[in-house]
Structures are given as C-alpha cells and as structure tokens.
C-alpha cells in the first residue's frame, strides 16, 4: 500500500478550471497539487482554433492555450501529476483520493474540476475529423462556418439551441433527428419552426461523415432514414453533435449532491458542494455555458473559497 501524500489543497482535473484554480491557489502559497487525469489540458487539447478566449486578438490553438495556462500555474509552485483518480473518500477530513497508479493522496480541501465529456455517435470519422468540421460546441466553433451549410445532430434543448445559434452565421442548418418530433421545450421548437434557415431532417440517423482531415474537412453526411432504410447524402461542411454531455462524476457517486443528469450541485454564487471543504468548478457543475472562460472563472472562485475555508478551519483550531 502506497503511503498517503498529504496536501492542503488538491485539485482534480487539468482543464481551464483546474489550471486556473492552481494559479490562484499557488499565488496564495497553498502549494496546490493537480492530478490532471488522462487528458491533461481537457477538451481544449482536441480543439484547433480558439477565438473567444480573452487576451488573444488573433486567436490561439487549443493545445497552446492550455500549455500557457499550465505553465503559468507551475510558475506559482503548482505540482502537476499525470495520473487518473479511481476512488475518493469524502466521508471525513482529511479527504482521501486514490489514483490509478496506486498512489494515495489526502487533503484538507478538495477542488473538483473533472469536467464533462461530450457524447458522440460512435462513428470513427468523428475522431479523424474532429477539428476539421466535426464539433460538439456551436458556441465555440460556429463562427468558422460563416456562410456555410451545416448540420446539427440531436433533438433536445441543446440541439435546437445550437441550431438557432448557428443561424447567426450559417446559410442553412439541417437538424438531423431520429424521430419525427423533438424533445426540446415548446418555446424553442416554435422559434426553430419560425426560422427559415433551419431545415429538419426527420426519422434519420448519421451513418457516416464524409471528408478528409486537413484537406477541406467535412464535405457531406451519409444519412439513413430509420423508417425506409433509404441512404442519402447531405452536403455540409460542418456537423455539430448535440446529443448531450456526461459529467465526470462517477468517482463521487453517493458522496456529493448531484442533479438528475449527474452534475455536481453547488451553492448559489459559490463553488461549494454539499460537503464543506469540497468545491466544484467548470463543466463538472456547469451544464449551461460550458465555455473555457467560464470554467476558468469558477476555477478562480474555487481557489479563493478553498483558501477562505482553510484559513477559517486553521483559525478555529488555533483558538481551541
């Protein structure tokens, strides 16, 4: 059994939220440790152009942005650990975290920034064309398809919201859904029907995405009608998968309060979870915005709240 390594603050997750929390915790001389998970840098490491993060007037590549934020955190004495957490025990302080390597960590305060993973269709081309016309975030990438025809796959609130947003830039937006009616709320459906740029493709699923990475990207979707089995091609230069996200919260099952979708619930105007000393930042608790800049903002909040929590605890102990 590995000997436990104790720290004042431990940060789980190496995306914008985790790295920003580390910057603030480091500047407060808390000597934070970041367990980065199996994808250091988070989802931005598989994103090409990022044009909506402040401070980069000409845009920045996703991996480069995350490398800069990571390096900034390390400048303030942050220890980065390349490992994945397999188990947590939040029943008492110090909190206990077990990593895949077998290493055990304990901490007085825990910041959870494990993010959320986009749900994909499971088509191989999704991976090969990711960043070359395939995206799971219209807010992030919609601008690059100005004047183009694109498709959104899904039938819930997220899909309709993405389709409506894309009409600000795109010539035509096809909404591909496996049924002949949507799950989205009625108001959003009414807005969609009133928008002439949105063309529903009912009773249909995506069989394949056609294109070449780095050579023009996506050129078409291969569509199958679920009622007739007829195969057709839809000429588009971009496809946005909008079938939801899954928060990475399984290792906290039964310990922290979550909503019906599994997102960690935090107190109003705070990153505090249902357990004192445990804070949540970024997409693991934000199912509304899911942006790098909002994740970074909550990372800042979590570090400031963790520092305040620890100071209060240590002050109380000193008075005993």
Give the secondary structure arrangement, pairings included.
Elements: E1 5-12, H1 16-27, E2 33-35, E3 49-50, E4 60-61, H2 62-75, E5 79-81, E6 85-89, E7 95-99, E8 104-112, E9 116-118, H3 124-128, E10 134-135, H4 138-141, E11 149-153, H5 157-166, E12 172-176, H6 186-194, E13 198-201, E14 204-212, E15 217-225, E16 231-235, E17 238-241, E18 245-247, E19 278-280, H7 292-319
Helix pairs in contact: 1-2, 1-7, 5-6
Explain the overall architecture.
- Helix content is 26%, strand content 28%.
- By secondary structure, the protein is α/β, with parallel strands linked by helices.
- Helix 1 (16-27) runs parallel beside helix 2 (62-75), helix 1 (16-27) packs parallel to helix 7 (292-319) and helix 5 (157-166) packs parallel to helix 6 (186-194).
- The longest helix is centred in the last third of the chain and has 28 residues, at 292-319.
